[in-house]
């Protein structure tokens, strides 16, 4: 008994070193931590996390976004960092098993981290303007839109510091006595002489654009990755505003106080050539970080966008306005995206925009309409609509329409019957050739996919049938149709005659795979409990079919 107790104590003392490397940042080495109590708390949090994850599939299988479940998580009775650590251990399970657990663990972790980042953003916005850095704002945007990635300000700052060090090295080769070279680490440096500032900018342009090959992404301009500062540093490409934030940050570290300019269609920086704080727009040179640091006059700025603009557009932008512009770009990209059925980027960018401007009626209405369209957060939709009505009573027509239909949605959800069960053995389903979990190939378009549902005939409306030219198929709409998850991340509805078995099956990299399947078995996917309830005969049929196929192949 004594040996068992001794072993347990030794385990608890060593536990944080090998099991909690990601959690050690929450502890101060000088603190006298009771590791046994911490272990108990961590164990308790782990059990709670697994209980919640296990419940999600049953409770929210029919919902793309498990909103009500998130409400449960907001009132956790355990430390959130322990809860997150257990979610990470689920996500890091090896192999193609536990897919449903991983799917919901990812959803929960996404939500938890976003809530924490939103708190940081609101604290950032409360600071005085001179304490808000554009780089930190850009990192917060990146973190919120990519909460599952390891993005932190310190790491990004270290990468920026490394570029600044390269600029100093090059500058030293040109002017060994330059203040940017001789200044001590951590010293706040402001260079006042324009010629010395010019030397810094010339050195920056050489290092950034010639040595490190940074450039504006003209080929894939509207890719959201161009707006994420971490991706800009990795791929060395971006759009005007993200490259400007990088350029501005490096310049300021080297003593040149450039300022952001919210220029229409093309974000710029300005460099004062006259009296500091001058309101004369002709006292500035304008810098295009997207165009390899090219220095522009007022007239050249207008040539850049192809039309004349008033003087107000040459003024300095605050860090909050820079953040608004970045989020606005992501909002526009989110509206363009069509493959993501959950409109995740649009939802994320709306959250960020409304964190900055919580009373903006236009964006509140967009958020309400989006949630209504997706059929998610109905109770939250009502709260948003109530807020809109209080802010702008003239919106009562649109608000009333959405309130009525949202209340109807809530009532329908209460009255929903059990799941629709489909059996191959029923006479009306005799023409169904394939089953849930089979990995298929589209004969016409060549994409690979996995079946997660089927109908004995096309169940889409007349407009969809007409638009998809279904009547041109030999068997038209009167043949089985299959719901499939496609390798490009889309969900499609395919006619039976267009599908065939994939003779060389592999895992389908679709974000919703875990919503329907618990395991990739090498030749097919195994339906999870909720999908099996809806297609109770498919699991056995899929297993038998793939066995026959591969026996013939051998």
Automatic annotation (TrEMBL):
Domain of life: Eukaryota
InterPro entries according to UniProt: Hemimethylated_DNA-bd_dom (IPR011722), Hemimethylated_DNA-bd_sf (IPR036623), SirB1_N (IPR032698)
Pfam families the UniProt entry points to: Transglut_core2 (PF13369), YccV-like (PF08755)
Domain Hemimethylated DNA-binding: start-end pairs: 431-528
PANTHER family found in the cross-reference section: F-BOX ONLY PROTEIN 21 (PTHR31350:SF21), SI:DKEY-261L7.2 (PTHR31350)
NCBIfam families: yccV
Protein name: Hemimethylated DNA-binding domain-containing protein
Species of provenance: Phrynosoma platyrhinos
